[in-house]
Automatic annotation (TrEMBL), chains A, B:
<dbReference type="Pfam" id="PF01425">
    <property type="entry name" value="Amidase"/>
</dbReference>
<dbReference type="InterPro" id="IPR023631">
    <property type="entry name" value="Amidase_dom"/>
</dbReference>
<dbReference type="InterPro" id="IPR036928">
    <property type="entry name" value="AS_sf"/>
</dbReference>
<protein>
    <submittedName>
        <fullName>Asp-tRNA Asn/Glu-tRNA Gln amidotransferas-like protein subunit A</fullName>
    </submittedName>
</protein>
<feature type="domain" description="Amidase">
    <location>
        <begin position="28"/>
        <end position="425"/>
    </location>
</feature>
Length: 443, 443
């Protein structure tokens, strides 16, 4: 029991179903891990030990035949997602101690499926800034090196899963808020196809980009979640083998994208070598010219959407908002609506083309981040390599396994066409085994 | 005071600012109108007289120099929009008496601007069905003929404004849920550009279609709201004159669209004649071939989105959901994800083309509805003529003024390109004067 915090959700569930672990004991193990570790990591915005244990006991009392597919699985919820029994505070003084009695759609689905909604994890302000949380206390730190950022905006969700404090957590992504912490914390992160999981009850930044994100330490755990959320592909599932598969390694050009650090450059090289060594073909491809405006288009649409999304908070208390959000509402960059629409429409036109490109390969490999997690917890890092795929609506998985110059984790992203999430997970299941075993980084 | 319920919001505000009307007296007049009329109309899902009067007195006590732009303006809120001091029940037994303590973004903005958040208006279930509300009581009726439907899904919002029970109300539109009740109840209805007003805290049906809608009995009132929500065009406002302006009258082809009834046919004819008589050019145009799939694409995307949006409610209590919502979640129509994406992308490609078409005219005139409000309150009518423009994201205004074969109101829709909402309101201000004066229907 004592060490059950180390288990993946799937492993823990097997023990719970087999009768060798109770939900309460599992929860106690996690709570004790948190107690031991969270003074260094600070991943939680709200955690009520008594509530957790009460819910755990309730779950243990459910007769076996009435148990849901996530029975007893503890899940951390990013604090921009509504939970009916816990506050949702968005890391904003405007929402301190606010506790609306309503579950987000995704939380309701998880709860109905038997999950143990554990607590709220830290987030940058409204999941919209790159200022490490919280604004009013000791900042969330990278579990693998507390002098560094865990990334953001899903800072606490990434750090808690990376630190074995919770097996699964929810994040969100508008730019790179799920994938970046995935890489920095050495865990699996899935940004599913846009709107394939309900976003009801998630704070809005950009309607057309915001996507619920999922964290775990195994692909099996992510698969468990996708199934509960009924994210299904058109094509039936077929076994995937790396041997004989064809991958693309996509080069993203400067100056549209920032120069990669040596950590990610080495990871890309090594990742390709490993796949080739295991019998796959890895084709290096350049991003076609017509897609080069992706980052610029993402920025413009996000700014135009932020202008709308933060208006009510701005009216209420401008002085308590991050300058970036004020800039959005006041449209400091003087983006016109015409520019915003051009960007919106240009991204829309790119989506089916990226699908078609992705369909030629088992998956496309792209960087997750520039490099290892930077030193300091004030800035959560750069989303440049994630934002385009958020805009494309395609599913993306960060696979951990590599390490940077300072021994910290680095992941690579694999992506597929839209609504091929299950296919992508099957690919990542096999690729992940290789990267984790031979990439050079271990937890 | 006694008759102040007849005032538009702008007229009432002038009296309040001038000191000849208090917010409390205005509220009392509306409450007494409601008391007198609502046993016939049943527009309210929740209304707390004491709360209304308490808030009204609080507003009266605000010093003049601290008053907001909507000071004292009573607004009815469709019961799919969260309000922190009232229940939000979605006309679903699943949410009976549910009262999350949180305001939707739009409600927070209205409240901050001094509006009197009055009560919750009836809606079809989750604003997603065409079954007249409520499910568990006497159904909302058309104020101009209680044997008929007020339309839906914004049934109560449309009926209450049409019946002089409230000057302004909020609706939503995914297909035709704002414009259709606008026409049936003989009022102005504005579906602004998609995502130009925050949709935070509105029940989700389709992310890419759902739009907050606004009801009033004057264009000035709609303008007041657009300004509070900071919906601005790129181009500065210029005075609009009907004389010399050029309109398009858009013919929508069968069988893609259902045959129009004589009420709307006559209104289109008369509307064009009136505009011409006032010196405008009205060009009859056909919908280009490439847009004919709009209705089909709308249906497919909506079904795919409904599959996601209602999953958590379905898991919780399938037996308490409308069959349409069950069909969505179970994907009874067997739409593939590929079909959904093709429709999603096709609509995206049409948007800039519709903008370009609209930019050639002061506005494009289209039907709002098939005909007068149908008899019966069980079905809220057909959204066929509204849904395409929801999918196009363009602003649309229903202008009342015409009447059908049974003397009931019929409106016409005017639309512009995206983010030309203020332009469209200026046009509708002038066109509305003509239609209201000479169209043949008066309240």
């Amino acid at each position: 029991m004592a060490e059950s915090f180390r288990l993946s959700a799937t492993e823990a569930q097997a023990k719970i179903n087999g009768g060798s672990l109770t939900v309460e004991d599992y929860a106690k193990s996690l709570l004790s891990r948190i107690e031991q570790r969270d003074s260094a990591v600070h991943a939680w915005a709200y955690l009520d030990h008594d509530l957790v244990l009460q819910r755990a006991r309730e779950l243990d009392n459910i007769p076996r035949e009435q148990r849901g597919p996530l029975h007893g699985i503890p899940i951390g919820i990013k604090d921009v997602i509504l939970t009916k029994d816990m506050p949702t505070q968005y890391n904003s003084p405007l929402y301190e101690n606010q506790a609306p009695k309503i579950d987000a759609g995704c939380v309701a689905t998880l709860r109905h499926s038997g999950a143990l909604i554990f607590g709220k994890t830290t987030t940058t302000e409204f999941a919209a800034t790159t200022v490490g949380p919280p604004y009013n206390g000791i900042k969330t730190a990278n579990p693998h090196d507390p002098t560094r950022t865990p990334g953001g905006s899903s800072s606490g969700s990434g750090a808690a899963v990376g630190d074995l404090q919770i097996p699964i957590s929810l994040g969100t992504q508008t730019g790179g808020s799920t994938i970046r912490p995935g890489s920095f914390n050495g865990i699996y992160a899935l940004k599913p196809t846009w709107n394939s999981i309900s976003r009801e009850g998630l704070k809005i930044y950009s309607l057309i980009f915001d996507t619920l994100g999922l964290y775990a330490r195994s692909v099996d755990d992510l698969k468990l979640l996708l199934d509960v959320f009924k994210v299904v592909d058109d094509e039936p599932g077929e076994e995937f083998k790396v041997k004989g598969a064809k991958f693309a390694l996509l080069k993203l050009p400067t100056p549209e994208w920032p120069e990669l650090g040596s950590g990610t450059k080495d990871a890309l090289k090594k990742g390709a070598e490993l796949l080739r060594a295991h019998g796959a073909e890895v084709e290096e491809i350049e991003l076609p010219e017509e897609f080069k405006t992706m980052p610029k288009c993402h920025t413009r649409v996000q700014a135009g959407d932020g202008r709308v999304s933060f208006l009510s908070d701005y009216l209420r208390a401008k002085d308590q908002l991050d300058p970036l959000l004020i800039q959005h509402v006041e449209n400091t960059n003087k983006f016109t609506r015409k520019e915003q629409l051009q960007a919106f429409d240009a991204l829309a036109a790119m989506r089916p083309k990226i699908d078609a490109l992705a369909d030629q390969y088992a998956a496309i490999i792209v960087p997750s981040v520039l490099d290892e997690a930077p030193v300091g917890q004030q800035s959560t890092g750069d989303a440049a390599y994630c934002a385009p795929w958020t805009a494309m609506h395609v599913p993306v998985v960060n696979i951990p396994g590599f390490k940077g110059g300072n021994g910290l984790p680095i992941g690579l992203s694999l992506l597929s066409g839209r609504y091929r999430d299950q296919h992508l997970l099957r690919v990542c299941g096999e690729v992940g085994k290789i990267f984790e075993a031979e990439g050079g980084w271990t937890r």
